[in-house]
């Protein structure tokens, strides 16, 4: 009897369960699964096509599909399991085997259940992995090799996974679905739209922040051009950078319309009529900083454009030349540009010629400063330049960069390059008149204003010493702080007149609007206060620390600005004011350097009317449409400053004081305080010559009980017997008022505090010591 021959092991097959995550889900469809850059499963739309004609394409087809037994079926459009039978894809058992098993494709829907294969392998404590495209595979992966081939999937996402934000409602529908797909690629306008509005992975802007008409017209233009893109954003870079990549592909710019504040896309195309473009020349250009035309050495004449091959999904390239430029330079000057989102040969050819034209042409560049008439220009806009000094009648330039300046500035700096589409219309003859008609609306009145009299600090910091010496003691100078009514307002004219009589005369023809806002919360009487910057409706950087602001009748100093926490710290009661309480809704003006000034002196007691006449690019506000504000002159600049560091019995505004009352303070000096704004708690200074201090005591009914004048020190002790005689008994509610005085003139404001005075002494004979003055 013969023995059975023992079987020999010639190799091993390897199997495993794998869980792989690929991208944000859900997606429209999964159309292919590759392992080691070879297909192991194909959807019907990506099934092997018949052998193509042409040697190069045939060789690529053979390399991709020869000896590749793959499984095919309809593309996966929802979570499901598929079978993979491609055991010979890596050469079968004689080489590295292949793949054979079951793959569970989880699209990442919001209602997706747990993976059955993953639960079987790990138990029930696994999540459903919603929101991402995952693949769970169980089966054979190789033979004779422990090296796992890299797995890849081919996906398409155009219509799935839209999350448009409009708080508090969320809209899952696709925007403008009829234009979303361009062949198998996506419309770039839709890509940018989704990046801006998606609240899960995008920027999360509400769709109301998008200029829908503009985006729709751009989507239609790109659809007509066949300009579809397919590419991946892997979140390793900022989404703003990804949007810029899209804009580079389509030769466009994402910008914000200065009129509506909404996002727009500007395509750089020959889509304008030269005669309708705005023109800038000597009438509105303040300074021509530079104008130069590129030389041949600054151009290229060969462009290599890298794009994605639609068959292999790998980088390929196309090369185009400008033969005239090559002849002019006598050599080839090459540049490579990468556009991975382009996936068709025809589109790559068009884009290559587009970029070569702009890079091989001798285009002019200009940089100049213009007045606010250019406020509406945005990056990508075109305009006409006329500059007779250079012999330029009219050439078309396109805005490359803009600097809009500061709030109180009146100039805009523009950097522009000659538009390649406008070259045939360039003219170097006589200057042409502008045909631009500004579409903005009429100017509006300033909604909030503060008409006050200049302090000594204002005069000393804006006048020369010689001019300050001529200011009369009984005169006053009006100042206007006005809120900008809209972003279209450039500045304003300040007009004044004697109250109720005569015509208004312009006294400041270029006054800057003031940064202002409204307090959301009440502001108590403190020596220092911290405010959240959002509560006053302004932006960090629009004002400087060390300057003053005005809230109610109080001047405050802006001490700190914290961009991280979004807070500001205020020192209270500076210049000639003292701390005051302010209710929620009070308006604060960040005033210094943002005032309309009447340089004419007005006598003390005079009443002055004022109007703020808004100016825009479209004209100025009619006088009759501007409200009238009225001010009574009090020669405020000549009044002594009130003392600082007001204390009662050593405390800041105590609620209760026992026995004897001690009022203390420190000196202030309007003539010295012209460099730094002293706060209430700052140290004493040398007093102004002739200044004394006064104290007034009021009883609980508000009746003046005692006035003390001519005090020259920094404290006063109010005797106990005087308290009892003046204030009606051993326990009362008193009000103490502290002010400065010089030459019969009292300070603009006085400190005032009300508190309970309590007597705690023993053995006092009320009967013998009680009485009036």
Describe the 3D structure.
By secondary structure, the chain is mostly beta strands. Helices cover 13% and strands 36% of the residues. The chain is built from eleven helices and 48 strands. It has a six-stranded mixed sheet with strand order 15-21-22-23-20-16, with no helix packed on it. It has a six-stranded antiparallel sheet with strand order 29-34-31-32-33-30, with no helix packed on it. A hairpin with a 2-residue loop joins β31 and β32. α3 runs antiparallel to α5. The N and C termini lie far apart (145 Å). The N terminus and C terminus are likely disordered.
Short description:
The protein has 773 residues and is mostly beta strands. Helix content is 13%, strand content 36%. The termini are far apart.
Report the uncertain regions.
1-6, 65-69, 423-434, 762-773
| Envelope shape | elongated
How far is the N terminus from the C terminus? 145 Å
The largest sheet is: 6 strands, mixed
Q: Mean pLDDT across all residues, rounded?
A: 84
Q: Indicate the percent of residues in helices.
A: 10-25%
Number of separate helices = 11
Structural class: mainly beta
Overall strand count: 48
Q: Compute the gyration radius: what is it?
A: 39 Å
């Amino acid at each position: 009897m013969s023995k059975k021959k023992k079987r020999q092991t010639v190799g091993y097959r390897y199997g495993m369960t794998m869980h792989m995550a690929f991208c944000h889900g859900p997606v429209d469809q999964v159309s292919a699964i590759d392992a080691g850059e070879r297909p192991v499963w194909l959807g019907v739309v990506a099934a092997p096509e018949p052998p193509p004609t042409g040697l190069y394409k045939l060789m690529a087809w053979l390399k991709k599909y020869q000896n590749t037994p793959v499984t095919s079926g309809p593309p996966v459009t929802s979570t499901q399991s598929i079978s993979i039978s491609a055991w010979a894809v890596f050469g079968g058992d004689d080489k590295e085997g292949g793949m054979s098993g079951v793959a569970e494709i989880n699209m990442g829907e919001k209602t997706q259940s747990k993976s059955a294969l993953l639960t079987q392998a790990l138990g029930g404590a696994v999540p459903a992995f919603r929101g991402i495209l995952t693949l769970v595979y169980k089966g054979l992966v190789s033979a004779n090799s422990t090296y796992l081939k890299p797995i890849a999937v081919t996906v398409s996402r155009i219509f799935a996974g839209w999350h448009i934000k409009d708080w508090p409602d969320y809209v899952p529908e696709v925007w403008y679905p009829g234009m979303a797909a361009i062949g198998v690629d996506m419309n770039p306008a839709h890509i940018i739209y989704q990046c801006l509005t998606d609240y899960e992975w995008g920027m999360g802007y509400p769709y109301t922040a998008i200029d829908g008409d503009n985006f729709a017209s751009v989507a239609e233009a790109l659809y007509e051009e066949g300009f579809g893109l397919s590419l991946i954003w892997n979140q390793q870079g900022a989404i703003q950078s990804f949007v810029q990549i899209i804009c580079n592909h389509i030769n466009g710019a994402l910008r914000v319309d200065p009129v509506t504040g909404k996002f727009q896309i500007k395509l750089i195309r020959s889509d304008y009529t030269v005669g309708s473009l705005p023109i800038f020349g000597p009438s509105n250009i303040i300074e021509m900083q530079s104008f130069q035309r590129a030389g041949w050495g600054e151009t290229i004449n060969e462009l290599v454009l890298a794009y994605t091959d639609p068959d292999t999904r790998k980088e390929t390239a196309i090369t185009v030349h400008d033969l005239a430029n090559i002849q002019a330079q006598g050599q080839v000057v090459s540049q490579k540009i990468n556009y991975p989102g382009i996936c068709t040969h025809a589109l790559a050819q068009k884009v290559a010629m587009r970029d070569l034209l702009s890079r091989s042409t001798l285009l002019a560049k200009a940089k100049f400063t213009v007045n606010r008439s250019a406020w509406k220009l945005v990056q990508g806009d075109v305009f006409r330049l006329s500059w007779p000094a250079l012999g330029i009648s009219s050439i078309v330039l396109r805005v490359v960069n803009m600097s809009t300046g500061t709030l109180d500035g009146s100039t805009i700096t523009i950097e522009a390059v000659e538009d390649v589409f406008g070259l045939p219309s360039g003219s170097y003859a006589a200057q042409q008149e502008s045909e631009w008609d500004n579409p903005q609306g009429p100017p509006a009145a300033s909604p909030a204003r503060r008409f006050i009299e200049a302090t000594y600090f204002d005069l000393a910091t804006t006048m020369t010493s010689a001019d300050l010496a001529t200011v009369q003691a009984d005169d006053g100078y009006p100042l206007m702080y006005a809120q900008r009514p809209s972003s279209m307002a450039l500045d304003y004219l300040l007009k004044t007149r004697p109250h109720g009589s005569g015509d208004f005369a312009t006294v400041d023809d270029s006054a800057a609007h003031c940064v202002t806002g409204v307090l959301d919360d009440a502001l108590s009487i403190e020596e220092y206060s911290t405010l959240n910057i959002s509560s006053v409706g302004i932006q960090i950087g629009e004002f400087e620390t060390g300057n003053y602001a005005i809230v109610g009748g109080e001047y405050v100093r802006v001490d700190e600005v914290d961009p991280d926490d979004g807070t500001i710290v205020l020192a209270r009661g500076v210049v000639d004011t003292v701390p005051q309480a302010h209710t929620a809704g009070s308006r604060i003006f960040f005033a210094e350097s943002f005032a309309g000034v009447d340089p004419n002196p007005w006598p003390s007691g005079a009443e002055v009317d004022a109007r703020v006449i808004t100016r825009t690019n479209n004209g100025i506000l009619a006088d009759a449409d501007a409200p009238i504000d009225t001010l009574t002159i009090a020669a405020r600049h000549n009044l002594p400053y009130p003392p600082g560091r007001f204390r009662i019995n050593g405390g800041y505004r105590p609620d209760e004081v026992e026995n004897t009352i001690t009022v203390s303070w420190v000196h202030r000096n309007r003539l010295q305080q012209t460099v730094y704004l002293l706060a209430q708690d700052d140290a004493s200074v040398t007093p102004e010559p002739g200044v004394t201090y006064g104290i007034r005591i009021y009883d609980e009914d508000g009746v003046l009980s005692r006035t003390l004048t001519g005090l020259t020190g920094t404290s006063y002790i109010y005797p106990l017997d005087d308290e009892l005689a003046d204030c009606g008994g051993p326990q009362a509610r008193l009000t103490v008022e502290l002010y400065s005085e010089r030459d019969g003139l009292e300070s603009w404001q006085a400190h005032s505090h009300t508190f309970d005075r309590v007597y705690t002494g023993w053995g006092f004979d009320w009967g013998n010591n009680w009485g009036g003055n």
